[in-house]
Amino acid sequence: MLQIAVCGKPNVGKSSFFNSATASTVEMANYPFTTIDANKAVAHVIKDCPCKELEVTCNPHNSICIDGKRLLPIELIDVAGLVPGAHEGKGLGNKFLDDLMQAKVFIHVIDASGSTDIEGNPVDPGSHDPLEDIQFLEEEIVMWMYGILSRNWVRLIRKVGAEHLDISKVLFDQLSGTGITIEDIIEAKRNIEPDYNKWEEKDLIELTRNILRIAKPMMIIANKADLPTSAANIERIKEKYPYVIPTSAESEIALVRAAEAGLISYISGDDHFEILQADKLNPNQLKALEYIQTNILDKYGSTGVQKALNYGIFELLDRIVVYPVQDEHKYTDQKGNVLPDGFLVPNGATPRELAYIVHTDIGDKFMHAVDARRNMRVASDYELKDGDIISIVTRG
Ligand SMILES: Nc1nc2c(ncn2[C@@H]2O[C@H](COP(=O)(O)OP(=O)(O)OP(=O)(O)O)[C@@H](O)[C@H]2O)c(=O)[nH]1
Ligand SMILES: [Mg+2]
Question: Which value does ipTM take for this structure?
Fold first, then answer.
């Protein structure tokens, strides 16, 4: 399953974001280092399900369909907070970044309201500038990776020369377990001094930064957008980082819980909800819901939580959703389930690659594929498109 990790300084709402997206109940509290060990749970990204357009009733198996919206599972990872100097052991240090590295995308959560200082201690709302929190985080992750990359460096470089090893492969081996590929390293090396014998510490740090940026795309979310001090900060942050997504994890939790209790109807990512049982809501709850509608949903279009997950998978990772089926006329699998599975595949993948993603056996026995919508066989170099329904024809 594709993984997204949340990171940031302490007390910004990482665990709140995690809980809101996964319906989990890990501890959240207004002090730094509430989270120590990593939390993992399933969240979903959402796309329109083809069932609506095709006017069929689907029987989802690996995913969920609600009102024509397909929810595809991903895994979300919540880790401890990082503070400046973590690579020198400040705060909880940075050893837990092993957990972060399992993810393909990072969501950097910042406290847009400015109610926590650089180490996550509560301060008067608006008294800390969240822009100050953005840069140090990448630097801390870079320094952690640099520590791994440069381990036994002198001995390593001597060995590369003596045994005529490939430097990219050696760097790749140093970083094993981080999900970083040799392609990432080759790309990252391009604008670095070509002769590794001349590399100084600063070159190696720059190389590490390039590797991180290529291998682990990061987005910023401006959390606590519901607080009055956030709006002006969000405007300033957007001037420098146009893609920042305002979020209110706390509002998302309130809406998801009210929906679970049957009090409202709400689908994550929507700009509205409907009150179903007004008589069961007390005046405070009604007021809170009204506040969320006006100050979050009307103002920003959503709580931002779902938008952030979708942005990570569909934009930063450039994934599309493809629906493999067996019967191209009925859009069903062997058992007659309509549009059972949606797969998050890289944009531009071929039908054979899809077959391998579904199952190695199916990949090995792949003969050709049929675009079920058009009922037409597709070429072997056909690039899959978002929403494609593909019947894979296999040998034997
Ligand atoms: N107003 C508001 N408060 C929030 C929001 N998200 C989180 N908080 C509050 O911020 C505080 C910290 O939340 P956590 O989710 O524990 O933060 P964290 O980043 O996981 O913290 P650590 O695990 O200590 O690093 C709690 O008091 C939350 O209730 C939000 O969207 N709006
Ligand atoms: Mg936490």
Answer: 0.99
